[in-house]
C-alpha cells in the first residue's frame, strides 16, 4: 500500500505519511502484528463506507496505524517497489534517435563552409502529433558554426520526421547539404518540416513558428542550478527527472551519448514572450545540445550554448555504468537544486596538480545522497514522500545492482527502464495534476546591462585612506578610494554577487592548472603581503622580495598589497603569485625601486603578468624602458588609471604605451566619479572595483576592538587599485579557457601576449559612456560561439 503525495495539497498532513509505508513490514511481522493490521484494514474499509461525520473514528484509526508502524522498528522504505510498473510501455525510439544523428551528420557536409558543422538542440521527447507508421518527428533548433555575421549565433527551428524505410520518402526531391545549410539559416517567421532517412533528406512544407526564441545561446540546466533558478517545486523535480531519465534511456546506445551527459548538456531554449519581450525558459521542454560535424561524432562543444567544462563527463573506475552514474548525478542535482561543482573544488578530490580524481564525482554523489537520506526536508519535520522516492531512484543509479542491471547493453537499457524510467513515470502520473505545467523561469530581458537604479552613492575618499592633497607631484600613491563607510550594504551585496558569479564560471569550466606548464605567474608590485593571513594559500605564493630596507615582503603594514593579492587568489585557480614589496607607506617616491622590482619579475621570476596598482603624475624614463622590455618579452602589464576623477589624468605607469589601463566601475558597469576622463582613441577598459571584499591584515592585539571592519581579516575597498587585480583575474581566466578548449590551435596573435590580451578585451567590451566595460559573466552570457569569435579576432 503506497501513499503518493498530492501536489495540490498546500500543507502536509499532521499525520506522517511514513506510517502507511510500514504496512508491508507489519504484514511480514509476527502473527500478533499481522492480526492487528488485518483488523485495522477491515476497520478502515468499514469507516470509509460510513458518513464523513465519523471524524473521530478515522482519527483513532490513523493513530492506531501509526503505532503499529512504529512497532516494526524499521523506518526504511522500499518505495519504488511499491509503484507498479507493469503495463508501462514507452515506445522505444533508439533506432530513430541514431538515424537522426546520421541524417544530421550527412546534412552538415556543406562544401561551401570553412567549418562544416552546427550546434543542434534536440528535444528530449519527440513531437507529439499524429504521424504515419514508421515516422517519428523530432523538434530541433540549429545554429550554424559557419554562418556569416548576419546569421551567426541565430537559432533556426526545424522539424525532422525520421523514417526507417527509404521508400516512405519517394516522391520528394532530395536536399543537398548546401541546400540544408541555406534552409536552416534563412530568417523567416516559418520553419521547415523535413523528412529523412540515411542517405536522403526532403522538405515537406513550412509551418508557422511554434516557439519564438531569443538569438542568444540556450540556457543550460547547469546555469539554472548555479543561479538557483530551479524553484522548490516537487512536481517540477519529478517531471524534469522523468524527462531526463527517459531521454537517457532513449539515447543510451546512440552517438548522442558518445560522451556521458551532464547538467550542462541539458538545455532550454530562451523563448520570447512577444507581449512584453521578456525572455523565458520553459522547463517542461528540455533539449540535448550537441555539436554535429561532417564525419564526426562529437556529442558536445564547450563554446556553444554555454556548455561548461570538459570534465563534465563522469569517469569512474569504481562504477560499471558511467552513463547511469551521470544520470544519477543529474537527478541528484535536480533534487538538491544545485550542482555538485563546489564540492569538486575541494583539494581532497584533486591531485597534487589540481586535476580532479577519477572517482571524485562518484564519491561526492555517494556522500550527498547519503546525507539526503539521513536528513529531513520540509517544514515541521515533514519528510516529503516525493523526495524519498527520488532518492531511491538516484541511489539506484549511483550504486547500481549489477544483477538487476545486467552486463549486456541491451539488457542494461531494458532494466534502466524497469527500475528508473517506469517508476518515475508512475510517480509523475500519480502525483502531478493532469493539467500541471510549471511556471516559466524569467531570464535576462535585454542583452545590455541596466543602469543602476537608485543605487546607494559611493562616497569618495572616506575613512582610513582619506584623500590627502598632493603637494608633491613626484609622489606616487596607492590608488585606493578608501575604506567605505558602514551602511553601504546594497553596494556590497551587488559586488559580492558579481564575485560569486565569477567564481561560478571558474567552477563550471574547471580552470585548474595550479601547477605545471599552464600555471600563470603573476607579479604584484605593491606593499607586500600578510603571508601568515589565515586565508592566504601559501602554496600559491611562488616567491617574494622586498626592496625596502629591513622590511620583509611577507609583512604588509599598509594592507593594500594583501588586498590586491587576495582578489587574485579568490578569482583564479591557475595563478601563482610573486610578491614584490616597494613601499611600507601609502605614499612613496622611489621610482628606482619600482624599476628594479619590475626587472626582477621579468628576469628572475619570469612572470607572465604584472599587476601595478599605484600611480605617479610624471613619467620616468628608466621605469618606462623596463616596462617596454617586459612588453617585448610578452609580459602583460595591468595598471590602475587614477582615483583623482576630473581633477587628474591617467597616471603612470598606466599611461605608458602598451600597458593595459584599468578604470573602476560598479557591478552594473557604471564608472564612478573617482576615474579620470576617458581618452579618445585609447583603450579605456573598466571592470569591477567598487566595494570589493578581500583579505586584510589582522589587527594587532593592542588594536583589537578599535577596527571592527578588519577584525575578521577582510575589508571592503574601492578604487582603480581594486579593479586592476580583477582585470588580471579575467585575463587569467581567458588564457586558461583558451588553453583548455583551443589547445594546439595555430593563433595568428597569441592570446597570452600583451597584444593578444588587448584584442581579447576589445572583443569582450561593452561600450558605456566612453569606457569599455569588461565583465566575464556578461560576455559568457551574451555571446554565442566564443571560441569562433576569438579565433576570428586573433587572426
Automatic annotation (TrEMBL):
Specify the Peptidase S8/S53 domain's residue ranges. Answer: 520-738
User: Keywords in UniProt for this one?
Assistant: Hydrolase, Protease, Serine protease, Signal, Zymogen
Organism, per UniProt? Talaromyces pinophilus
| Protein family membership | Belongs to the peptidase S8 family.
The residues responsible for catalysis, as annotated, are 526, 560, 721
Gene Ontology biological process terms from the UniProt entry: proteolysis
* Region listing for Disordered, in residue ranges: 293-314
Name the Gene3D superfamilies on file. Answer: Peptidase S8/S53 domain (3.40.50.200)
Can you provide one Gene Ontology molecular function annotated for this UniProt record? serine-type endopeptidase activity
Kindly indicate whether the keyword Transferase belongs to this entry. no
Q: What is this protein called?
A: Uncharacterized protein
Q: Which domain of life is it from?
A: Eukaryota
Q: Which InterPro entries match?
A: DUF7580 (IPR056002), Peptidase_S8/S53_dom (IPR000209), Peptidase_S8/S53_dom_sf (IPR036852), Peptidase_S8/S53_subtilisin (IPR051048), Peptidase_S8_Asp-AS (IPR023827), Peptidase_S8_subtilisin-rel (IPR015500)
Segments forming domain DUF7580: 97-426
Biased composition of type Polar residues is found at 296-314
Amino acid at each position: 500500500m503506497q501513499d503518493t503525495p498530492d501536489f495540490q495539497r498546500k500543507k502536509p498532513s499532521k499525520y506522517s505519511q511514513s506510517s502507511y509505508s510500514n504496512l508491508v513490514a507489519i504484514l511480514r511481522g509476527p502473527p500478533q502484528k499481522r492480526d492487528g493490521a488485518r483488523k485495522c484494514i477491515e476497520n478502515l474499509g468499514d469507516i470509509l463506507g460510513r458518513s464523513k461525520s465519523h471524524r473521530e473514528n478515522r482519527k483513532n484509526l490513523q493513530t492506531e496505524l501509526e503505532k503499529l508502524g512504529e512497532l516494526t522498528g524499521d523506518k526504511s522504505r522500499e518505495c519504488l517497489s511499491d509503484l507498479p510498473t507493469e503495463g508501462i510501455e514507452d515506445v522505444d525510439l533508439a533506432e530513430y534517435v541514431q538515424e537522426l544523428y546520421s541524417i544530421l551528420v550527412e546534412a552538415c557536409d556543406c562544401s561551401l563552409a570553412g567549418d562544416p558543422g552546427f550546434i543542434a538542440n534536440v528535444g528530449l521527447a519527440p513531437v507529439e502529433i499524429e504521424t504515419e507508421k514508421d515516422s517519428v518527428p523530432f523538434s530541433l533548433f540549429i545554429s550554424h558554426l559557419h554562418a556569416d555575421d548576419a546569421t551567426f549565433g541565430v537559432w533556426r527551428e526545424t522539424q525532422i520526421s525520421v523514417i526507417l524505410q527509404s521508400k516512405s520518402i519517394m516522391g520528394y526531391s532530395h536536399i543537398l547539404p548546401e541546400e540544408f545549410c541555406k534552409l536552416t539559416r534563412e530568417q523567416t517567421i516559418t520553419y521547415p518540416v523535413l523528412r529523412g532517412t540515411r542517405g536522403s533528406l526532403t522538405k515537406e512544407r513550412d509551418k508557422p513558428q511554434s516557439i519564438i526564441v531569443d538569438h542568444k545561446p540556450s540556457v543550460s540546466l547547469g546555469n539554472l542550478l548555479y543561479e538557483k533558478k530551479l524553484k522548490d517545486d516537487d512536481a517540477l523535480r519529478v517531471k524534469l527527472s522523468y524527462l531526463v531519465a527517459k531521454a537517457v534511456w532513449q539515447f543510451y546506445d546512440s552517438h548522442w551519448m558518445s560522451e556521458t551527459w551532464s547538467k550542462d548538456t541539458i538545455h532550454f531554449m530562451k523563448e520570447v514572450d512577444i507581449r512584453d519581450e521578456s525572455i523565458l525558459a520553459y522547463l517542461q521542454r528540455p533539449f540535448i545540445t550537441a555539436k554535429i560535424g561532417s564525419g564526426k561524432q562529437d556529442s558536445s562543444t564547450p563554446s556553444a550554448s554555454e556548455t561548461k567544462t570538459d570534465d563534465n563527463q563522469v569517469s569512474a573506475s569504481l562504477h560499471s555504468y558511467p552513463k547511469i552514474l551521470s544520470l544519477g548525478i543529474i537527478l541528484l542535482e535536480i533534487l538538491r537544486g544545485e550542482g555538485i561543482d563546489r564540492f569538486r573544488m575541494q583539494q581532497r578530490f584533486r591531485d597534487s596538480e589540481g586535476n580532479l580524481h577519477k572517482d571524485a564525482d562518484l564519491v561526492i554523489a555517494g556522500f550527498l545522497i547519503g546525507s539526503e537520506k539521513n536528513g529531513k526536508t520540509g517544514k515541521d519535520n515533514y519528510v516529503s514522500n516525493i523526495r524519498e522516492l527520488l532518492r531511491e531512484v538516484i541511489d539506484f543509479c549511483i550504486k547500481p545492482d549489477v544483477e538487476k542491471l545486467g552486463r549486456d547493453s541491451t539488457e542494461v537499457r531494458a532494466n534502466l527502464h524497469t527500475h528508473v524510467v517506469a517508476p518515475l513515470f508512475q510517480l509523475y502520473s500519480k502525483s502531478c495534476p493532469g493539467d500541471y505545467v510549471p511556471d516559466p523561469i524569467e531570464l535576462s530581458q535585454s542583452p545590455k546591462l541596466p543602469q543602476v537604479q537608485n543605487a546607494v552613492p559611493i562616497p569618495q575618499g572616506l575613512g582610513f585612506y582619506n584623500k590627502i592633497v598632493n603637494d608633491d607631484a613626484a609622489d606616487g600613491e596607492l590608488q585606493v578610494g578608501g575604506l567605505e563607510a558602514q551602511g553601504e550594504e546594497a553596494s556590497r551585496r551587488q559586488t559580492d554577487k558579481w564575485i560569486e558569479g565569477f567564481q561560478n564560471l571558474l567552477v563550471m569550466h574547471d580552470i585548474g592548472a595550479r601547477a605545471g606548464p599552464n600555471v600563470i605567474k603573476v607579479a604584484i608590485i605593491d606593499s607586500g603581503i600578510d603571508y601568515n593571513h589565515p586565508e592566504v594559500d601559501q602554496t600559491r605564493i611562488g616567491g617574494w622580495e622586498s626592496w625596502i630596507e629591513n622590511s620583509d615582503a611577507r609583512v604588509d603594514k599598509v594592507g593594500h598589497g594583501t588586498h590586491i593579492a587576495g582578489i587574485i587568489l579568490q578569482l583564479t585557480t591557475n595563478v601563482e603569485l610573486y610578491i614584490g614589496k616597494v613601499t611600507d607607506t601609502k605614499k612613496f617616491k622611489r621610482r628606482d625601486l619600482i624599476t628594479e622590482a619590475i626587472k626582477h619579475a621579468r628576469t628572475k621570476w619570469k612572470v607572465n603578468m604584472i599587476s601595478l596598482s599605484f600611480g605617479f603624475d610624471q613619467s620616468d624614463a628608466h621605469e618606462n624602458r623596463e616596462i617596454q622590455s617586459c612588453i617585448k618579452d610578452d609580459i602583460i602589464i595591468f595598471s590602475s588609471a587614477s582615483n583623482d576623477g576630473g581633477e587628474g589624468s591617467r597616471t603612470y605607469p598606466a599611461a605608458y604605451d602598451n600597458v593595459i589601463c584599468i578604470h573602476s566601475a560598479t557591478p552594473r558597469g557604471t564608472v564612478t566619479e573617482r576615474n579620470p576622463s576617458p581618452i579618445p582613441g585609447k583603450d579605456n577598459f573598466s571592470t569591477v572595483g567598487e566595494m570589493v571584499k578581500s583579505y586584510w591584515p589582522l589587527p594587532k592585539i593592542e588594536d583589537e576592538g578599535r577596527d571592527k571592519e578588519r577584525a575578521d581579516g577582510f575589508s571592503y575597498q574601492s578604487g582603480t587599485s581594486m579593479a586592476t587585480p580583477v582585470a588580471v583575474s579575467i585575463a587569467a581566466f581567458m588564457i586558461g579557457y583558451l588553453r583548455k578548449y583551443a589547445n594546439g590551435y595555430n593563433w595568428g596573435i597569441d592570446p597570452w601576449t600583451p597584444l593578444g590580451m588587448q584584442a581579447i578585451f576589445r572583443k569582450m567590451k561593452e561600450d558605456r559612456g566612453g569606457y569599455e566595460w569588461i565583465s566575464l559573466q556578461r560576455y559568457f552570457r551574451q555571446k554565442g560561439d566564443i571560441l569562433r569569435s576569438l579565433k576570428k579576432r586573433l587572426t
